[in-house]
Amino acid sequence: MTTNQDIQFEMRDEIAVISLTRPTKRNALNDALIASLKHIFENLPQSARAAVITGQGEHFCAGLDLSDLKERDAGQGMHHSRSWHYALERLQYGPVPVVAALQGAVVGGGLELASACHIRVADESAFFALPEGTRGIFVGGGGSVRIPRLIGVARMTDMMMTGRVYNAVDAERIGLAQYLVPVGAAFDKAMELAKKIATNAPMTNYALMHALPRIAEQPSDQGFITESLISGIAQSTPQAKQRVRDFLEGRAAKVSKAS
Predict the structure, then answer these.
(1) Can you tell me the distance from the alpha carbon of 95 to that of 206, in angstroms, rounded to the nearest whole number?
(2) What pLDDT does residue 1 have?
(3) Which residues are catalytic?
(4) What order do you get walking across the sheet with 166-167 strand by strand?
(5) Could you say which of 3.30.420.40, 3.40.1280.10, 1.10.8.60, 3.90.226.10 is the CATH number of the domain covering 7-198?
(6) Distance, CA of 200 to CA of 244 (rounded, Å)
(7) Against a cut of 0.85, is the pTM above it?
(8) Which parts of the chain are beta strand (E)?
(9) 3-state secondary structure of 187
(10) pLDDT digits (tens, 9 = 90+) for 8-22
């Protein structure tokens, strides 16, 4: 698969692993890296069932590489932002669920990238910020849409207006991450989750990625009818029917209390 020197792709059995490889730049994002990310998710192998995104070195991603920020007129700036939207939509609404392994800086565009993933695992070194407000710019990679859905408008406003930085513990508490693990353990936990996700029925994973976010934004009456349609489709698949038979015939594990 074609990428560039700032991003690496590999398959580990059914898991696609995408690594940001600019550790000397704290894995800051540029247009070439975003284009490669889009290309990867548009061309995942058929064998992929889940993906993990990680960053090499001490940081996940410190945001936009400001040295790559060009002077643009309003129209050019809008089209540039839309190109990032298109790329991250290929991830959020792509073929497989994506787990982000977060450590160190998850800042600006890095947080926008993380918010496009379906599950976020943060280790205790992670910190989260949106410094665009203090730099005289505004988020342009979809953050104003995705991040408030995780933490609410008021918290995002605070982050951008005041430069507030959340540590990993508080980030997990407010919803920026779903899992908190010791330093250095984010990737292993992300892989563990991805492997578990990969065992789900593909149609169920697809419904969770593509239908659930849209149902959540629909008026209740529309959400209910969409849910019924997706539910009917999901339970009609051969995989679903076999899993129900396995459960009824005692071949599937029952839900038990978490340890």
Answers:
(1) 7
(2) 58
(3) 112, 132
(4) 105-107, 127-129, 166-167
(5) 3.90.226.10
(6) 13
(7) yes
(8) 7-12, 15-20, 50-55, 98-102, 105-107, 119-123, 127-129, 166-167, 179-181
(9) helix
(10) 999 999 999 999 999
